Amino acid sequence: MGRTGRLFAHEWAGITPDIMATAKGLGGGFPVGACLMTEAVGSAMTAGSHGSTFGGNPLAMAVGNAVLDIVLEDGFLDHVAQMGLRLKQRLAALKNEHGEIIEEVRGQGLMLGLKCKVSNVKLLEALRAEKMLTVQAGDNVIRLLPPLIVGEAEIDLACTKLDAACVALKSGALADA
Fold it and tell me: How far apart are CA 121 and CA 102, in angstroms?
């Protein structure tokens, strides 16, 4: 929710799904989920055909409403899109500088990945040495998912650490990683 610079990622494709599940982003870290659907799909879900352990939990609903209040504030999603563009541009520059390590920058907004030419585990180790934590993803990718409130200074710091990690890998400083 909001991570790509639009409320839902499907909006970039100009489509409207018939049914959609949402959870983590809706709760901002609090456990909540929602199943969204068109009226036509909803009409097929008669009473008792769909169950939920915590359905309608008042605290979860209050949290979901609070998250939506923030994400839907004027300018919030614009900020996410702007910071996502800044990060993607900085990562593209790093790819150009360290093409033997970074093969491709993937993703949209603040949901990005670096497809690696070296083992993504090696880049993770080099990033850890720079005090930057991230995780690996499939297809030899490093996942970058900064918080939606990230600022320019944090993006610049992350890219400085990524650059240093790539330099360390090229110099062989982490040859046994």
Answer: 13
